[in-house]
Design a protein that fits this description.
Rossmann fold, 2 domains, alpha/beta, four-stranded parallel beta sheet, about 240 residues, elongated
Length: about 240
């Protein structure tokens, strides 16, 4: 994220320097005015970078954290993805960094939310492929046999009295969020789905936890239940 902001400042400088030669021919004061404008833009970019770094490092809401999440989601992420494509950086690596940055910004707000306003949202691939009891839409059907992580997650939800749902894809996940109207979502998914989900849900705060895929994508995936519990406890009233 910081490197991207530095590159943005460099582009802003080039945007000022290149046309400066021609601006002087129009009016002698135009290069100075353009320099002031681009200087302000560079200052804003550098200040934003500093705030992001400090917020992440200190874990505290310093200034404009919610606004910065919007900037990261709407502007920095697309820019970073383009730069990553040019530099040969994998999309998953970029998305992992984005999810980590988003989580830092959300947790820095020190939100404290009642259990009934928190939603744990899970992908259906956490359930074993050959399980005859499908828990999509109603995790209460789980018999807690312990063969997959759905057992631990359903126990966790019952322990803390929070809502929990299993979705088969982005469309159903969005419907669940609209229907339940939580104040915070604790989501488990792969890099791609977490990134798109965080973007779609903004400004609703989302804490993302990446799943493990020992058998490949979307098949018998796993998740560290202790990570879910730690994230949950950090936001509960």
């Amino acid at each position: 994220m910081g490197l991207t902001c530095i590159l943005v400042v460099g582009l802003i400088y080039l945007g000022w320097w290149i046309p400066t030669m021609g601006l002087a021919n129009i009016h002698p004061e135009l290069p100075s005015l353009a320099g002031m404008l681009f200087g302000v833009l560079s200052g804003i970019a550098l200040l934003g970078t500093l705030l992001l770094v400090l917020t992440t490092a200190l874990g505290k809401d310093i200034l404009f954290t919610r606004f910065m999440r919007g900037v990261v989601i709407k502007f920095l992420l697309p820019l970073i993805e383009q730069i990553g494509r040019l530099c040969g950086i994998s999309k998953d690596t970029i998305r992992q960094s984005f999810v980590a940055m988003n989580n830092s910004l959300v947790t820095s707000q020190r939100l404290k939310i009642k259990p009934d306003r928190i939603l744990i949202l899970l992908p259906h691939c956490l359930q074993l492929f050959d399980c005859e009891i499908k828990v999509t839409g109603d995790i209460g059907k789980c018999v807690r046999c312990g063969r997959c992580d759905i057992t631990g997650l359903s126990v966790l939800a019952q322990k803390y009295q929070v809502d929990i749902s299993v979705a088969t894809g982005g469309t159903l996940a969005r419907k669940v969020i609209i229907d339940k109207r939580p104040k915070l979502v604790l989501a488990v998914a792969c890099e791609r789905d977490l990134t798109s989900g965080i973007k779609d849900c903004y400004p609703l705060p989302v804490i993302g936890v990446l799943n493990d895929r020992p058998f490949g994508p979307c098949f018998n995936t796993r998740v560290d239940v202790e990570k879910i519990e730690a994230a949950l406890r950090s936001v509960l009233v």
